[in-house]
From TrEMBL:
Name under which the protein is recorded: Expansin-like B1
Domain of life: Eukaryota
UniProt entry keywords in alphabetical sequence: Secreted, Signal
Taxonomic placement: Eukaryota, Viridiplantae, Streptophyta, Embryophyta, Tracheophyta
PANTHER family with a match to the protein in the record: EXPANSIN-B3 (PTHR31692), EXPANSIN-LIKE B1 (PTHR31692:SF92)
Xref: Gene3D superfamilies: Expansin, cellulose-binding-like domain (2.60.40.760), RlpA-like domain (2.40.40.10)
Limits of the Expansin-like CBD domain: 164-248
Signal peptide segment: 1-25
The keyword Cell inner membrane is annotated on this UniProt entry: no
Localization annotation: Secreted
Domain Expansin-like EG45: start-end pairs: 46-150
Species, as recorded: Iris pallida
Length: 253
């Protein structure tokens, strides 16, 4: 059977239009965003993820609370590209934020730091105009977190009580994957046990083993890829201290 050029063109057009209506190549989801009214500039130091003061300045202060995307704490540390849609004010790329808190304002998916909210503007003036609007239409997508020159690190939370109670956070989570589970391993006999996520990005263990500890992370389930256990190069020292941060020696993709 000979295909006429007209028929070929027709088939191509139908295929192209079909693609356009079913798949958005850029994966953006429409929503709306507000900002923290009580933050002068940065995010909050008492966000639900438990980052404490670190949460205000993480990612240069480009942080956000999430409602549905908080996902009971699994969303803590995830990065999203958020761009507003008002063509008069909004830049093409918007801003990349890290989730540090849980919260909603009306139907918004995000409550940004004021700093991040204004950064969606084309200029500082446009940013000020956005702030004056309060709530704006946005589009967002999951994106990789980037912490140049940082390894994934474990911060021993101040609520810890050496040697009886260990609570820690995972900082500088690069890439676009989630940390779905955490194991605490004794390095001397390699016994591991799964930990509970206490809240947000905080993992806890009562009566932790003595000796150096290794914290393994099950990473995956973000924009793609299988889950796999990440084994740090460095251990948490035997005499870990509340408030201290320990470098894992590894990065996530
Ligand atoms: C906001 O965060 C930036 C970047 O870490 C920091 O330099 C600045 O001091 C912070 N501002 C306030 C008001 O906390
Ligand atoms: C592993 O070693 C630690 C420290 O020596 C000990 O407390 C623990 O009971 C050991 N676990 C097993 C399963 O042997
Ligand atoms: C990250 O870990 C590697 C391997 O242990 C180490 O060589 C490097 O200095 C660490 N990077 C930072 C910024 O600490």
């Amino acid at each position: 059977m000979a295909l006429s050029p007209q028929l070929i063109l027709h088939v191509l057009l139908v295929a192209l239009l079909g693609l356009q209506s079913t798949v958005r190549a850029d994966n953006f989801t429409p929503s709306s965003a507000a900002y923290y009214p009580n933050s002068k500039e940065n995010g909050t130091g008492d966000g639900a993820c438990g980052y404490r003061s670190f949460g205000a300045t993480l990612n240069g202060g480009d942080v956000s609370a999430a409602s549905v995307l908080y996902r009971n704490g699994v969303g803590c540390g995830a990065c999203y590209q958020v761009k507003c849609t008002n063509a008069n004010y909004c830049s093409d790329n918007g801003v990349t934020i890290v989730i540090t808190d849980s919260g909603a304002s009306g139907n918004t998916d995000f409550i940004l730091s004021q700093r991040a909210f204004a950064e969606m503007g084309q200029t500082a003036d446009a940013g000020a105009s956005l702030l004056a609007l309060g709530v704006v239409g946005i589009e967002f997508r999951r994106t990789s977190c980037s912490y140049p020159n940082k390894n994934i690190s474990f911060k021993i939370d101040e609520s810890s009580n050496y040697p009886h109670y260990l609570a820690f956070l995972i900082l500088y989570q690069q890439g676009d994957q989630d940390i779905n589970a955490v194991q605490l391993c004794e390095t001397e006999n390699l016994t591991c046990k799964l930990l509970d996520r206490s809240h947000g990005a905080v993992w806890t263990v009562v009566s932790p083993p003595s000796g150096p500890l290794s914290i393994r992370m099950l990473v995956g389930g973000g924009n793609g890829g299988d889950e796999s256990w990440v084994v740090p190069l460095n251990n948490i020292p035997q005499d870990w201290q509340p408030g201290s941060t320990y470098d894992s020696g590894v990065q996530l993709n």
